[in-house]
Design a protein that fits this description.
InterPro entries: DUF1850. The protein is mainly beta and 149 residues long. The chain has two helices and twelve strands; from the N terminus they run H-E-E-E-E-E-E-E-E-E-E-E-H-E. The two termini are 31 Å apart.
Length: 149
């Protein structure tokens, strides 16, 4: 009986998985990455002027796409911290992270137009990386966190 109760509790508390999907406007899927509850991914790219890597990081929280942090190695053009939007901390290497952003993304989706390979927009997660620039440079790509099917 005790073993059955434990199994029941695991089933009752297990959060549903979701899938991070990158697709073109015509519906073609460029990437599909299983994204369990509490797991995350980052959109990575090289700053077009300064050349350093920038990262915006997200997490699956209860099936919601949530922006959690941003890493920016300096205050280059177009980058910076907005007071009241997360907490700015040093990255220990001359740059900074904006942590505790905790901003749900409306509709669990947003559009991104990846730059060319010099910028190399990528999706990075614990299991790997995929270059959106390599397959869809200068095209509108929709990033969506979709419920498991």
């Amino acid at each position: 009986m005790a073993g059955g109760l434990a199994a029941l509790l695991l089933i009752a508390t297990a959060a549903p998985a979701a899938t991070l999907v990158a697709r073109l406007g015509d519906g073609r899927v460029l990437a599909s990455v299983p994204m369990p509850e509490g797991e995350g991914w980052c959109i990575l790219w090289r700053h077009s002027v300064q050349g350093f890597e920038v990262a915006d990081c997200y997490e699956n929280r209860g099936g919601r796409m949530v922006l959690t942090q941003s890493h920016q190695p300096d205050f280059a053009a177009g980058l910076g911290h907005l007071p009241g939007r997360g907490r700015q901390v040093s990255d220990g290497q001359g740059g900074y992270r904006i942590e505790d952003m905790d901003e749900p993304v409306p509709g669990n989706a947003y559009a991104l137009r990846p730059g060319g390979m010099g910028v190399d927009h990528r999706i990075g997660w614990a299991g790997g990386t995929v270059s959106l620039s390599a397959v869809a440079a200068r095209q509108r790509v929709w990033l969506t966190l979709e419920p498991a099917r």
